[in-house]
Amino acid sequence: MPEVDPSLRALGNQALSRIAPSAIRAFDDEISQVPGIIKLTLGEPDFAVPEHVKRAAIRGIEADDSHYGPSKGKLALRQAISNYLADTRKVSYDPETEIIVTDGATEAVTASLLGLLNPGDKVLVPTPVFSLYFTNIEMAGGEVVMIDTSATGFNLTPERLEEEILAAGDRAKAVMLNYPCNPTGRTYSKEELTALAAVIKKHHLLAICDEIYSELTYDQEHFSLASLLPGQVILISGLSKSHAMTGYRLGYIAAPAELLPNVAKAHSFMVTCVDNIAQDAAIEALTNGLDDPKAFKEAYRRRRDFMVENLTKLGFEMAVPDGAFYIFAKIPEKFGSDDFAFAEDVAKKAGVGLIPGSVFGKGSAGYVRLSYAAADDKLSQVIDRLRDYVSKL
């Protein structure tokens, strides 16, 4: 094992050193050592990629589709994305200039922030929310302004947005929205987004909208802010959740052409181009697999109802998720409010892996997140284990 030259030990990006690693991954790694644990920690669908999508990937391999592709992605895929968004968002994006295929939605978020923010720019982020946004904003030199939404059903209100914009002043450049939301599962109705859009338009803010869970809404059709403010929205999505393609790492950005030159640069400097075989699969998914998410969604709806009913009986409180596949549950009062201590104790004593709520920003303390993307039998075992844990206390 090589030992570093002592004179090099001080090397390291100081700004990056101040940013903590992913608390979700760190906690998941920690409790993974518990024998027999059932983890509901990560947003990992338990379904297989649809067979026809897998066959498209295989055909790509057999055709030796193994060379560098266009940095922005294959034109056929960008056209398929454009067609899909025109149908679902009623916005026409030029596949040549207004769509970038990315290495998952995570890279889409990173490239967008690196390409659009300047040091000191403030980004307003309703919380609780996926903690990746905090670190990526900071990596881009921006400043995170967390907006605690726990008092308003975990949704941002136009009044609160206006208040935070005025407090941030001229440095307020963007608002980051994730809907349906990780970790709460909450989403926005057309009426709610219309009210938010009026404030965003008034203050000429950029809205970065992560809609990766848009195909997994249960009780209402997904509506996009891009349908109301196409000139002010960076729309981010992908196929990880809709088609269970998390390992394919296939995401995309859609936005006005004028906003994308630096985003495209950041993307190309980080990854050059996205894997061709993943793109072959994505073309099939967005061409012949638009109905594939329906079966997944019905299974998730059933699992949501099962988990909400049984967790409520055990004393947990939660906003019923509108979409995605997470429950953000308030810890029963008798267990205290230390969500890290609670999650560690449940892992060790009940063999159930949950994510402490505090990692998701303001308004998250005293909660835990669980993913019900796991198989039905595992969810049943989790409820049995939690029932024993609660009864023993």
UniProtKB/TrEMBL annotation:
This is Aminotransferase. Keywords: Aminotransferase, Pyridoxal phosphate, Transferase. Residues 37-384 form the Aminotransferase class I/classII large domain. It holds the Pfam family Aminotran_1_2. One of its GO terms (molecular function) is transaminase activity. It comes from Lactobacillus nasalidis. Its EC number is 2.6.1.-. Belongs to the class-I pyridoxal-phosphate-dependent aminotransferase family. Its cofactor is pyridoxal 5'-phosphate. PROSITE patterns: AA_TRANSFER_CLASS_1.
